[in-house]
Design goal:
Blueprint: H1 36-46, E1 48-52, H2 59-70, E2 75-80, H3 83-96, E3 105-109, E4 112-114, E5 119-123, H4 124-133, E6 140-145, H5 153-168, E7 174-179, H6 184-191, E8 195-197, E9 205-210, H7 218-232, E10 236-240, H8 244-253, E11 260-265, H9 271-277, E12 287-292, E13 305-310, E14 313-320, E15 325-332, H10 335-343, E16 351-358, H11 379-388, H12 401-413, H13 425-432, H14 437-446, H15 451-458, H16 469-477, H17 487-503, H18 520-527, E17 532-535, E18 542-545, E19 550-552, E20 564-570, E21 577-584, H19 587-593, E22 599-607, E23 612-621, E24 624-630, H20 636-650, H21 659-673, H22 684-689, H23 691-694, H24 713-718, H25 723-732, E25 736-738, E26 744-746, E27 755-759, E28 771-772, E29 777-778, E30 780-784, E31 790-794, H26 797-803, H27 805-815
Parallel strand pairs: 1-7, 1-8, 2-5, 2-6, 3-5, 6-7, 9-16, 10-12, 10-13, 11-12, 13-16, 19-21, 27-30
Antiparallel strand pairs: 3-4, 14-15, 17-18, 17-20, 18-19, 20-21, 22-23, 23-24, 25-26, 28-29, 30-31
Helix pairs in contact: 4-5, 7-8, 11-12, 11-13, 13-14, 14-15, 14-18, 15-17
């Protein structure tokens, strides 16, 4: 189809009758047209605007046409978040000019391009490359960010870069953000732009909910609801499901005898099949039935759709910076997504939307989906920021600091950033490749030979079953041996391999030599230095990864017995990730690849299981030990430090506490309780905190719990006091009192009032009660019988002699006749002896 003659000075667009917009736009008018003059006026005055327009208003088709007529010469770029939407939008725009993409209108995306002279629809990631290559965007006059409400990471980055270059280099650059379901305020604020709202035209949509919550298997419930919708309605039907797997499983449950033509629609579908879905159903006797992922929510126009079935689920990527792993999670749709899907039923006529949830569940839906930047792997973003040379940009949502720091740490490990965080020559090479930096690193290291593996890891797994990567590569080499339902995926893998081979360096990096370039495990280990796994002891197939996390595998998997593996894909579980793709790797290969990163670590540590110190020499790669052998000549100080950890682990009760040590602690505790803070705190908590000061030096050379018996705890604690502290302690809280007989009486300072125990006869003649402590308080005296049993406790010895002694004497003298029981104890001689037996 030839393109018509140019008639507009700026655009070369063919003439058309002026519509309600007052613009000379080709093709039939659409609901968006009345606000286009207002939009163009804002763009002339402000250079930026935010356009809100409901689904079906025609913003994707009409806004580029309007700007084509009103903007100065230069290229108009329109960003779409998905390839299928970009291609479809370019084809519709070109059709408005009576042409095909590749002339006045074109498109570009990874692996496919039909450039346009004036209007070019591109996928979001390409804008970043264009800006990094040419920061002034020479020849570009306008950037349209379509469907910005999806908040894709590349879209947010592209907008932030565009705002920065507009402020610094290109004040004439025109920016437009468009969406059907957008919280426009924050976008308008960051763009410093006015908001234009189009009310559009839509037909009424009858929304129907489930009478009760769905309880069965997801695919069964979805197929059942589709059957009900088919029975109750007429016209084409669009079904929203979270992913390709659910689409295929639901299709398998549908009855083809119902006069329907089920068609899948997802991103990995071949282009020819995608185009077929976007055409009207050729058989008028069959109903069009499209089972699609979220790519059908926006931008795409699917003909004949009057019924929508929304299964209420969306698939999103979630990244855990702690584990360095991403995983896809299936979540409930948000209200914005549900409204967007519902609107698809009212584009051509009155429609019906069936929702696979109850009316009461509407209130539990979040308002908007989270921006991808808040939960995605930020490695690519960190690389772009380093290449741009800025730490901050005017993001709609700033990247989370923890995730960004983790991304930069990975880039440093890949050699993309230097020690100062600046981009290296290798980092610049990685940024040039349309791959995640991990896979770009793999491709540069392995050259063209690594292209099949890079293509495999960048796309969908073409096979099902065990995790061995080499089986996928074998199937890629000979697809005829693979099951029929896997050959389409293998064909896509082959096409992507061809593309990456063209991008691969002619000579592989020196990081890999000889046979290692052909080993998947070596290449995966290079791309995923944090996911090199060392099998844990035991029957269960569990691996400790070099990044410090754990990964598991099915027990019957062929790789379940491998000691060392390199893990490419997991389910992202931060606790114990399930391995999905991996390859065995030899220790010699790892030693060659990471010679500079290997660290010989001398480890002397406490083993709770052995209740002893273990000493090992380990060759560490990150968190894993490639070698582990006994450390023979361990310094005594290292043993002592590890033994101290054992005391912390087992508690202070494991130490050989003697009565003298216990009394010493009690004496100091008593005085501190009386307000004397000059003495050290001897509580368990304080001793644990100061363990390295008072105990660790005395543990040198010890290895086992039994060795602790050699410690003299009283001496160790006494050594914590200087001379003046000891003198003060002995004066205020002496360890013992001396009885009139000369007997040394240990004082129990653990009570609220200090206490001693003594045989009654040893205190004869003592008429003044002993006093101790800084306040000179009376000591509690436990008076004992000759047999050592308490007969009285007193804090007033003179009072005892005067009031209670005679009663005690009457009771005791008959029981202990050989012991002295004088009538006046205050005048008697103290004694420790009994009377001699009579002959």
């Amino acid at each position: 189809m030839a393109e018509g003659p140019p008639r507009n000075a700026a655009s070369g667009a063919p003439p058309s009758a002026a519509g309600p917009s007052g613009l000379d736009l080709p093709g039939p008018g659409l609901p968006i047209d009345p606000v286009l003059p207002e939009l163009c006026a804002h763009l002339r005055e402000k250079g930026a605007a935010v356009l809100q327009a409901p689904p079906g208003a025609g913003k994707t088709t009409r806004v580029p046409l309007a700007l084509d007529q009103t903007l100065p010469p230069g290229r108009i770029l329109m960003l779409e978040p998905r390839r299928v939407a970009a291609r479809a939008a370019a084809e519709r725009l070109a059709e408005a000019y009576g042409a095909r993409p590749g002339g006045h209108v074109g498109y570009r995306m990874r692996g496919e391009a039909k450039p346009g002279r004036r209007i070019e629809v591109i996928t979001e990631g390409l804008l970043t490359r264009m800006i990094q290559t040419d920061p002034e965007l020479s020849g570009t006059i306008c950037i349209i960010f379509d469907e910005i409400h999806e908040r894709a990471l590349q879209g947010d980055l592209g907008l932030a870069l565009a705002l920065e270059i507009r402020a610094a280099l290109r004040p004439d650059l025109v920016l437009v953000a468009m969406s059907a379901t957008l919280d426009a305020g924050p976008v308008a604020a960051v763009m410093e732009a006015p908001i234009v709202t189009a009310h559009g035209r839509s037909f009424p949509v009858d929304t129907r909910h489930l009478a009760r919550p769905a309880r069965g298997r997801f695919e069964d419930e979805a197929a059942s609801l589709i059957g009900e919708a088919l029975a109750q309605t007429e016209g084409g039907m669009l079904v929203f499901l979270p992913g390709e797997g659910e689409i295929r499983r639901v299709m398998a449950r549908l009855d083809p005898a119902d006069g329907i033509a089920p068609e899948p629609l997802f991103g990995a579908l071949p282009i020819a099949q995608q185009r077929a879905v976007l055409r009207p159903e050729p058989d008028p006797g069959r109903r069009k039935l499209v089972l699609a992922t979220a790519i059908a929510e926006t931008s795409l126009t699917i003909p004949d759709i009057r019924v929508v079935v929304d299964a209420g689920r969306a698939r999103r990527a979630r990244f855990d910076p702690g584990s360095g792993m991403s995983r896809l999670v299936t979540e409930r749709v948000t209200r914005a997504e549900a409204d967007q899907r519902r609107g698809r039923a009212g584009r051509v006529a009155a429609g019906i939307a069936f929702r696979m949830w109850t009316k009461g569940e509407d209130g539990a839906l979040a308002a908007f989906p989270p921006p991808e930047i808040a939960s995605a792997d930020l490695t690519g973003l960190a690389l772009e920021l380093a290449l741009w040379g800025a730490d901050t940009l005017p993001f709609l949502t700033p990247p989370p600091p923890a995730a960004l720091a983790e991304a930069r740490a990975l880039l440093a490990r890949l050699g993309a950033l230097d020690a100062g965080g600046r981009i290296t020559a290798h980092g610049r090479a990685l940024a040039e490749l349309p791959l995640h930096p991990r896979l770009g690193h793999l491709l540069i290291a392995g050259g063209a030979e690594a292209a099949p593996l890079a293509a495999l890891l960048d796309g969908r797994d073409p096979l099902r079953g065990d995790v061995e990567i080499s089986k996928r590569l074998t199937a890629w080499r000979d697809p005829s041996q693979a099951p029929q339902d896997q050959r389409a995926a293998l064909a896509r893998l082959a096409e992507e391999t061809k593309r990456l081979r063209r991008l691969a360096p002619r000579a592989a990096s020196a990081a890999l030599e000889g046979q290692a370039r052909a080993e998947p495990g070596a290449l995966v280990a290079l791309a995923y230095p944090d996911r090199i796994g060392l099998r844990r002891p035991g029957a269960a197939p569990r691996w400790l990864l070099s990044g410090g996390k754990e990964a598991v595998m099915a027990p019957d998997d062929p790789l379940a017995g491998q000691r060392l593996i390199a893990v490419a894909q997991t389910d992202g579980d931060p606790r114990a990730a399930q391995i999905r793709l991996a390859a065995p790797v030899a220790q010699s290969t790892l030693s060659a690849l990471y010679a500079d990163a290997l660290e010989e670590l001398h480890v002397c540590s406490w083993s709770r299981r052995a209740r002893a110190v273990t000493a090992r020499i380990r060759l560490m790669l990150g968190a894993i030990a490639l070698e582990d052998r006994a450390w023979r000549d361990v310094p005594d100080t290292a043993l002592g430090a590890a033994m101290a950890d054992g005391v912390r682990d087992l508690g202070l009760g494991v130490l050989p506490w003697t009565a003298a040590a216990t009394r010493l602690r009690a004496r100091m505790a008593y005085l501190r309780g009386q307000g004397d803070t000059s003495l050290p705190d001897m509580s368990d908590a304080a001793l644990r905190d100061r363990l390295d000061d008072w105990l660790t030096p005395h543990l040198a050379g010890m290895r086992r719990v039994e060795d602790l018996a050699r410690l003299n705890m009283a001496d160790l604690l006494a050594q914590t006091l200087d001379w003046s502290q000891r003198q003060a302690l002995d004066r205020a809280a002496p360890e013992a009192l001396t009885a009139p007989t000369g007997t040394r009486l240990p004082v129990d300072w653990s009570q609220a009032v200090p206490m001693v125990s003594v045989r009654l006869q040893e205190l004869f003649g003592l008429t003044e009660h002993p006093r101790l402590g800084p306040r000179r308080e009376p000591v509690r005296i436990a008076l004992l019988s000759p047999a050592g049993r308490p007969v009285q406790v007193t804090s007033d010895l003179p009072g005892f002699w005067a009031r209670s002694y005679q009663d005690v004497r009457k009771e005791m003298r008959g029981r202990y006749p050989r012991h002295a029981w004088p009538e006046d104890p205050t005048q008697a001689e103290p004694t420790r002896r009994a009377k001699p037996k009579r002959g």
